[in-house]
Amino acid sequence: MNQEPLLAGRSAIVTGAGKSIGRAIALALASHGARVLVNNRRHAGESDGSAAAVVREIEAAGGIAVANTDSVEQAGAAEAMVEQALASFGSLDIVIANAGVAPEKRIAGMTQSSLREAFEINYFAPVALTQAALPALRASGSGRLVYIISNAGLYGGDGLAAYGSTKAALYAFMRSAATEGRRSGIAANALAPFALSQMTAARMTDELRGALPAHWIGPVASWLASAACSTSGKVYVTGGGLISEARMEETAPVRFTTTGTQAIAEVCQCLDDLAAAEACINFDGAMEAFLHTIGQHLSGGD
């Protein structure tokens, strides 16, 4: 008996899917049976755009796809993508927010306009798409949200303040989407991929370019997009066939006992103790972390 494809009967939107990681994800979803709206803005000089080229690849392999050339940050783009997906496929089960820009400027050289542009594309556009897609994802009963973030949003980096800030904001949004989505069967996760792309090519050696083709991202995204995957609220770092989970953790709290001038020495000692701490706690959300800390305070625990 032939096994039904992992994503059979499911429909997806993938933004920034004309090249590199987004293309790899769109092709992977389609290979597992999903119908895919392939979004990528049309660049000057392109005849039909990269989104249409990916659609042709999917169709040539026997899949179903439609192209969308909206710029994700433009007003109405999110609603237009959702409407097109519903009109084309009759349902929407998966949203993969991949489109992004990666400005590289040190803090002193950042401009407000470039920072705002990065947030419009990397953060506000995925938020708008999530909001537009929510009714359809709720109706699905197994809606899946996958946000493409970056280790720059987890750890920062030289020249990555703007880019990292947008991805850190998207990480926090994902965590809230995961919490809110539970009541309607929606799961939300994030991927921090390591792969050859237009953003990363300049930072990679020839050896890394050969070891990290974008197609390694597809299987992870496909599993997170499936109804069979109930994981939610997680960040997975993946590339080249490797995968790890990135976690936000807190140490157990240590106590200082005064607020006077003598408190400074105690605070310094506390920070030294925390630097040496090994046991950490991973919280599901801000309220859980808050209640844990309050509980520690009320119990007098260290």
From TrEMBL:
Keyword terms: Oxidoreductase
Superkingdom, according to UniProt?
A: Bacteria
What the entry lists under InterPro entries is as follows:
NAD(P)-bd_dom_sf, Peroxisomal_Beta-Oxidation, Sc_DH/Rdtase_CS, SDR_fam
Is Oxidoreductase tagged as a keyword?
A: yes
Q: Please give one Gene Ontology molecular function term for this protein.
A: oxidoreductase activity
**Family membership:** Belongs to the short-chain dehydrogenases/reductases (SDR) family.
- Protein name, UniProt field: SDR family NAD(P)-dependent oxidoreductase
Organism name: Kineobactrum salinum
